Input
Amino acid sequence: MSVAEKAIVYATLILADDQVEITADKLEAITKAAGVSVEPIYFNLFAKAFEGKDVNELLLNVGSAAAAAPVAGGAAAAGGAEAAAEEEKPAEEEEESDDDMGFGLFD
Output
């Protein structure tokens, strides 16, 4: 990720943290104050992407969309999930230890 890309992301996070509406003009002002030159397309791109969205809420719920996907499958997949779990158990037999390699962590 380039310095300009990081700057626009940080500017977005600054505005979100202060609970200020994310606009192209505000993003541009923050990056100029930081002394970073950013291509003008990024300002409009980020402003439109986060228009009407709560960035803090998006950040807090990053993993919830992935966790909700299996739930969407419902009870129909429940029987198949139990069978898959039983098949996975034998695969987790023994892991190689460092002792087998002839060295340890503190050697």
The chain has a mean pLDDT of 76. The helical segments are 3-17, 24-34, 40-49, 55-60, 64-73, 78-91. The longest helix spans residues 3-17.
